[in-house]
Amino acid sequence: MSETIYGYARVSTREQNEDRQILALMEMGVPQSNIYLDKLSGKDFERPQYKKLLKKLNDNSVLYIKSIDRLGRNYHDLSDQWRIITKEKGADIVVIDMPLLDTRREKSLLGTFISDLILALLSYVAETEYQTIHQRQAEGIAAAKARGIKFGRKPSPLPPNFHEVYQRWKMGKITVKQAAFECGMPQATFYYKARGYQKATILND
To answer: Which residue is catalytic, options 2, 12, 123, 156?
Structure first.
C-alpha cells in the first residue's frame, strides 16, 4: 500500500503570506488538496485545520512541515503533539528545513534518540524565541508610551456644528437622537464624543 502524503502550514496572522511554505510542501510532492493551513498563533494547538489533519493521519501517512515552529512554538505542547503523531497515530514526520528530523530515516533506538534530542532542542529554541519577541514588543510599547506616543487609530475630527449641537443637547433643547442626526453620527458615537468634549471643556476652563 502506497503512503499518503500530507502537508501542514501555518502563519500567525491573516496578513502574513503562506506561499513560501505551500511551495516548499508541493516541491516535496505533497498534493495541494492534502495541505492544511491555519492562520493562527502557534502558542497552542487549538487550530481547526490542524485538528482536521490530525484525524486523517495513520500508520500509512507522512506529514511534511517547512520548519518546526510552523507546527508549534510551545515546547511542551509541541513535544506532546509530536508523540501523538508518531506514536499514537503511527505516522512519519518530515521537517523540510531540518533533514535530521525525518522519522523515516532511522527507526533504531539511536535514531529515535537523536530525533527526540533535536526536537527537544528546536522546540525549546522556538518557544524561547517566541517569548523573547513578545517581551521585546511589550518593552517597546511601554517605552513608546513613556515618550508620549499614542497607539490606535487617530480619532476622527468633530463636525463643525458639534459645539452648537452639543450645547443645545446639554440644555435639553434636543434629544440625543436629534443631536446625533444633526452631527451625522450614530447615537452611541455622539454620546461618547459628548462625554470627551465635556471633560476637555472642564479641563480647559
So the answer is: 12
